[in-house]
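User: Okay, second chain of the day. Same drill as before: sequence in, structure tokens out.
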Amino acid sequence: MKKSIFEHTSLEAIIQYLDGSADETVKQSVEQWLNENSKNRVYFEKIQEAWASIENIPEFNDMVDKDWMKILRQIEQKKSTASGISPQTTIHQHFQSWLKIAAVISLVIIALGTGYLLKHKSIQVEGKEPVSFNEVDVPYGQKSTLILSDGSKIWLNAGSKVRFPNHFTGTKREVWFEGEAFFKVAKNTSRPFFVHTSDINIKVFGTSFNVKAYRDEGVIETTLIEGLVSLTVNHPAGKTSREVFLHPDHKAIFIKDKTTFISEDIRHDVHEPLKTRQIMISSPVNTETSVAWREGKLIFDNESFENIAKQLERRYDVKIIVGDEKVNQIHYSGVLKNISVEQAIKAIAMTTDLAYTIKDNEIIIARK
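Assistant: Same drill. Structure tokens below.
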């Protein structure tokens, strides 16, 4: 059974150590734990970073939930009556303390468990209060899920990055994104939701959709599951862009430049001349192919190995080296679900003209 990272000291003791409320016994316990090994010091630094983040959220003191207060009031009533301490004061102090600990646990799990990086920064806009932003960076081999302050939910695929405010203010909700993600946006007709990518902006009307917008890929794909979105192209200041609407079971395709390799599936889906720097709408598509990654599946429909290799690199955090450029033009169709990278490569090699060698974190691909 895997040991807890806090086996020799409790998270509550560490929090007391950080906020200065620890007595000598607790201090000695934490310091002894810190000196046991370097791993403990790394964990402590993560907790310290998370604690500082919680302390810097000005809205924190407004997070007291009424239902929790009712429960705690019943627990504390008898204990506080005898001591003469105000039940309300005791409840509030205990709730705030444990709420902070719970928040720190969440951030530590984010940092240590799922492997993505959470950063906080404040941005000052002239004439307005500073806005505090979070930035989440998901490394290769990982996936993550976020819930925004408005209740919107984002599933992030490997190699993705998103920046969003602690709380949405003003007349619209905005996030800045690159990579691949599935968005389920809370409906709010008075405050539309915007997803900004490197080349296009997506305006959301309370809906669910998938966006694939990696910076190292020449195509941005937006697949709508339900609801309605509109898309515009990022143009230089002063130049307007036509708003294009996307309906469920369709895909919006944006080709960045003329050097972009256009896969066969895009040519099949878009029944119009392919153009660069314009948003094109596909015919009806099987949306499962676009969102299968959330369930650990990779679905390839006559996909070139060049595109397959990029997806495998992100999914498994490996480096794929192609020894023969003709390999990139080999096409493969199939479904890979919750298997190792070696099993995935073997499955592809069985039905194609590929040979492979795996060494550490590298996979060398050649023709048979």
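Confidence is low (pLDDT under 50) at residues 1-8, 55-72, 85-95, 108-115.

User: Thanks, on to the next one.
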